[in-house]
Amino acid sequence: MLRRSFVAAGLIAGLGLAIQAGDLSAQEVNLRYAHVGAEGDIQYWYGAEAAERIPEATNGRVTVTVFPNSQLGGVQETIDGVRSGSIAMAHHEFASLAQLAEDIAVFNAPFVYRDGAHALAATDPASSEIMQEFNERLIEGGDMRIIGRLFRGARQMTANQEVLSPADLQGKPFRGVPVQLWTSMVTGFGAIPTPVEVSELPTALMTGMVIGQENPLTMINANKLYEVQTHVMLTGHMQNVLPVFINESVWQSINEEDQEAILAVLDEIAQETLANATQAEKDLIGELEGKGLTFITEEDGLDIEAFRESVLAQVNADFPTWGPYMERIAAVE
After folding, report:
1. pLDDT for residue 1 is more than 50
2. CA-CA distance, 168 to 65, in Å (whole number)?
3. In b/e form, how buried is each residue of 271-282, taking b as 16+ CB within 10 angstroms?
4. Neighbours of 74 (CB within 10 A)
5. Higher pLDDT, 197 or 164
């Protein structure tokens, strides 16, 4: 009984539910939406757009209050909050959901997508069969579902030194998102994986706790990492697409018409993130060079193929069941 009361209390907190007395048809839902993005990052823009457009699409029946920049906690607190219902919805890496749906982190696998458009197609909850299969697992294992996604751009490597191959990172601490896939990927980079929450990253880089990290250029700029890093290696090792997920009980409390409206809005914004990220990446190279960062490309000796081989060898060793999924992702048009 106590557990049911706790869950109910959390669900009410996550929904911000307001029901007019005696009239369930007039139910209004406010969704508490959490993410770790800082202002200037595409994911911050995505959350703000969702908060503006969802009420318009649902005639005010569904509203959204966004809590960016880890205001409601780090990765684990966010996942736990959505699972319990104390947070209605959120977005983060697919790998952060692996504890709830086995192998779902394959959608984060490095070097798995051809480009950003392919990443969005493969992760579309409305049309991608492999995404739909994993969504069913997430509903069963975590009481949440994916209702959208956003594209942040290709993830690039930064460091306080020039890096041309995995040999340059041997024995050096390098920041990884605190989930298993990043541990495997950073090991494939040749470095020592060191978990650091995004809110603590600038300090960790400044103090030398880690010598580098990897993220889209938009995040590198938004978090002013140019102040604590000297080089950007254009490895493009991940097409960074993030799932947007919602507590299943919260989702089922929304009528079908509004559900369809929300799905359409989130897909519309997703396509805009692809266009925005593509343009931002072009613009940011010049801007970040002006802020003191040196960009390293294949023309400068960056051995992307060496990183690809090393990283995929480590991922295949650590995630031996991923092969068939990666083939299915690759086959998505």
Report:
1. no
2. 44
3. ebbbebbeebbe
4. 16
5. 164
Render pLDDT for 118-159 as a digit per residue (tens, 0 to 9): 999 999 999 999 999 999 999 999 999 999 999 999 999 999
Query: Quick one: pLDDT at residue 286?
Result: 95
The proportion of the chain whose per-residue pLDDT surpasses 70, expressed as a percent, equals 92
In what helix (H) or strand (E) does residue 244 lie, and over which residues does it extend?
strand 231-247
Contacts of residue 252, defined as CB under 8 A and 6 or more positions apart, other chains included, come to none
Angle at which helices 323-331 and 129-142 pack, to 10 degrees? Answer: 130
**Does the CA dihedral 135-237-266-11 come out positive or negative?**
positive
Q: Report the C-alpha gap between 257 and 211 in whole angstroms.
A: 50
pLDDT digits (tens, 9 = 90+) for 11-39: 545 555 443 323 344 479 999 999 999 89
- CA-wise closest residue to 273 among 145, 116, 59: 116
Q: Tell me the C-alpha to C-alpha distance, in Å, between residue 95 and each of 52, 207, 290.
A: 28, 27, 34
Does the structure show a pLDDT above 80 at 74? Answer: yes
Of 57, 29, 69, whose CA–CA distance to 246 is shortest?
29
- Ordered DSSP codes for 197-242: -GGGHHHHHHHTS-SEEEEEHHHHHHTTGGGT--EEEEEEEEEEEE
**Neighbour tally for 296: CB within 10 Å:** 20
DSSP assignments along 84-102, one per residue: HTSS-EEE--GGGGTTTST
**pTM of the model as a whole:** 0.81
Rounded-to-integer distance, Cα 169 and Cα 186, Å: 9
Single-letter amino acid, residue 173:
P
- Of all residues in the chain, what percent are helix, strand and coil, respectively (each to 5)? 50, 20, 30
User: CA angle at residue 312 from 311 to 318, to 5 degrees?
Assistant: 95
Q: Which run of H or of E encompasses 62?
A: strand 62-67
pLDDT higher than 50, residue 87: yes
